[in-house]
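Late entry, evening session. Most of the bench is empty. Finally got around to the prediction I had been postponing all week. Sequence below, unchanged from the version circulated by S.P.
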Amino acid sequence: MTETTESSPAAAPVALARDRGGALSVPVVAAIFTTLLVLGVALGLAIHASYVGFARVAAYHVPPDATLVVRWDVEKVGLFEPTRRFLLPLLDEAHAPAPAASVAPERRSPLVALLPSTGPVKATPPGRRDHFAEESGSMIARDLREVLVAFGPADGDWAIVLGAAFPKGDVVAALGRTFAREGWPWRELGHDRLVSPGGAAVGRAEDGALVLASSVARLDAVLPVREVLPEIPRVGAGSLLLRNRPTGLPPGGAALLGGLGHFETITGSANFGSPLPIELTLHYDERLPAGSSSEIHAVLAALLGDDLRRLEGVYGPIKFLPGVLPANRRDITVSILVDDMALERAAKRVSEAVEKALAAEPARE
């Protein structure tokens, strides 16, 4: 009698059990899941604290006597990319004295505004941002959150307020070491303040904002924390306040605005979006001058160049609110949509204009 060669039913469970070898127990799986969940929450909180939850503070530093104030947030790509591509690279130029033949005048850095020129400038590899990152642990392109620029009250008066998620430590001292590496001797002016031989100054406010200014007097005017002006709110994509004064505008500003008549103020706001919705309101001390809408259109054309025609072709003509203006109205508001391409080109034109203006300035001892 032959024995059957088929495996007995009892052998199957043994084989199946071996196939499941190495499976994790329920407690181990639960522990791994809990660990991953905790790590995910911690990472989310870190991202929120560094990006979403970063407290905007630049609007607390608007000097009351400023002629022009512009604030913009660089959290979104639409505003971050133009800032990163065309404005931040201006910080990479060194301002160490150099022989006149070392660099063409048109390559002079806009950062020369921080110190009256003692000679042509020369870029030093690596750039200033790289040096600052080594000294402070902060990468400006990564940590910057907002920028506020204030001009006036006098010609040549300016201040730049940087709101950034700087690491803990003395950022101003790191700047001093960065300048020292370039042979640029800045002097300490009390705690968290430096002054250059030419008079420009840098300091850090009590809320963490970093302020660059044309003089110690302007630094003192911008560093204190003040009430937020309604025209320059603390949050939002961007805002603008322009007071019609004879002094304090950037070069070319008075000529650009000359056709707008005797307005009192211009306020502006931008909301996050793609394209970016921007509204500008002109307030006059008396009824609107004739042809004000066409003059506003001309100013926008000068600022946006050929992009204005393209934007109006894609998104429709700029809107004047209300559609029918009363003869005795004192305000006029214009609404326009600006896409990323126009923003980048505008930022490029601004950087080129600053370079051109500063290159034309005579050297000062």
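Two things to note before I forget:
The longest strand covers residues 276-284.
Residues 44-52, 96-124, 360-365 have pLDDT under 50 and may be disordered.
Will write this up properly tomorrow.
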